[in-house]
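Comment thread on ticket #2218

A.B. wrote:
> Attaching the input chain for the structure job we discussed in standup.
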Amino acid sequence: MGTAAAPGSYMANIKPCISSSRKMLVSSTVNVSTEHKEASWTRLASFSNISSRQPFLHRITSKPVKFEKIVTRAMSEASDTKPLSGLPIDLRGKRAFIAGVADDNGYGWAIAKSLAAAGAEILVGTWVPALNIFESSLRRGKFDESRVLPDGSLMEITKVYPMDAVYDSPEDVPEDVKTNKRYAGSSNWTVQELVESVKKDFGSIDILVHSLANGPEVSKPLLETSRNGYLAALSASSYSYVSLLKHFLPIMNPGGASISLTYIASERIIPGYGGGMSSAKAALESDTRVMAFEAGRKHKVRVNTISAGPLRSRAAKAIGFIDMMIDYSLANAPLQKELSAEEVGNAAAFLASPLSSAITGAVVYVDNGLNAMGVGVDSPVFANLDIPKDK
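C.D. wrote:
> Ran it. Output below, let me know if you need it in another format.
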């Protein structure tokens, strides 16, 4: 599925060598290093000419592509009272809950790292069937390399909660799920129980991140999607955010922030991204605007969503054509480089910080500018135009 949160009795405490929430952040400047690599990508005639049954099957040519890696630099100091220089992202003293972290290579993990680098305390929610593997990997150090922060310390995950955001309360859970062996040994994983556990353990949070989505029929064109498949996509991918924010708001501190992840398929046709997932992302963006008004007026909490470009995460690979989407972006986006998870994490850290205190109800695009394009410039129809290319 892709939703997750764990109960108090089923959690892992990860204690790295340096606690990110107890150290001084001297700067959070961005360091850009560039290296030239060779990459080949699929030449696409245009977005509108792609078949949903055979997405992105076009002839391949090779071109040089420039890759840039952006890293948040967070340095530790012994003093928590020394003033910070410049204009830093400072989240010391803040507590974040990231829903939907099940491995170390997705946007949820990258957001957790950026928030930790800025000083926030990290709590995560992991889908119940994935909980054992995730906690075991943490304990055995499989994620240690991925946990390294820019200052050399390790990201600390204070607590891991089991969670399934498809269910609001124990009464909503069907009997076949309750008795499913993948849920055996876990408890308090519905949204209501999850929030009660977090409140009991920590009292409050400042930042809520929704990084989960699932569409059981995502590989089907919309006109071949069943009603149950369509509604399941909306339940897991958009209403889950409404439910999480609804239940967390009473324990979110005023001035807090909530962030979700969306995709350009909410606005544009992406053949192959079916099963109602495009509809779910459109709903998520609409809900973001409405919840920004309601949460802002009632709780002084900001609500935004990040429209992220394609990433080679495990979840994205399940769709089946993520590599082709990345190749298309490389060929057609204003910035000809591969998007990194860190770039999305850094944008999330900004949106969670006081630096964005007047931003709410917004869709923030972090996709190398692909959302601004109206055509695929690698189409043969543009062959005679003088279109700038990365050299």
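A.B. wrote:
> Thanks. Noting for the ticket: Confidence is low (pLDDT under 50) at residues 1-78.
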